[in-house]
Amino acid sequence: MTSKSSNSSAEKSKYKHFVQLASVFLAGLPGIASPKQNSSMDDEPSMSGEAYYALVWRRFKRNRLAYFGVWLLAGLVLLIVFAPFFSPVDPMARNGDDAFTPPNSVHFYSQEGFSLRPFVHPLIEDFDPVTYQPIWTPDTSKRNYLQFFVEGWKYQWMGMSMDSHLLALDNGEPLYLAGTDRFGRDLLSRMIHGARLTLILALLVVTISVTIGTLVGITSGYFGGRTDHWMQRVTELFLAFPELPLFLALITILPTTATPMTLFFLMAGILS
Fold it and tell me: N or C end of the chain, less CB within 10 A?
């Protein structure tokens, strides 16, 4: 009887210490009540009915910078997924007459007065008589109004043929909110579509890196001994190289005749 009572008291003592230790860690979390000092050893630490993920989300929202970053990332993902819808011009369309066109400025006021509808002035191309460089000047006597949720160039989205776009000009002329390149292609539309490729590349690089790192860590920890020692030394050797010069050196040896898909996977392998 004495040994049983001593074992029971020892277990209760361990449980009491565990409860006290848990109360220390949980004291700073909102919604979690710490156990009372005079509670019996059989009482369990109480917790409010609020779910764990709700507690995590509430604490996360207190960090305004992180909260803003989440919404910004969500907006970028939404922009990338629906890239054709947000692109006012076909990113692959070329127009030699619009090469190096400056961005169209959106206005609400002009010489004719104030307008609730946003508009842009058409640009007129001229040449400098001294340098013979093209000069673009806005024609303030005309207004091209912006229209929202309109039909435009056709595209494929998830196997469906669509032509809906967020905005366009009422007269059907291309809208260059970020200007054009030397081939007359819209820079804004090309940046939006390029962001999609960048996101896919980043996800692929992270997936490859996590997979390789997990396999190396599991193998090193499983065998241990010399295997663990040499695998860790090789890992430290790779980590010792400066990343940026190494990436630049590897990118320079990429074949120029490779297809875009081949270059995409080579870049993913290099960055991994």
Answer: N
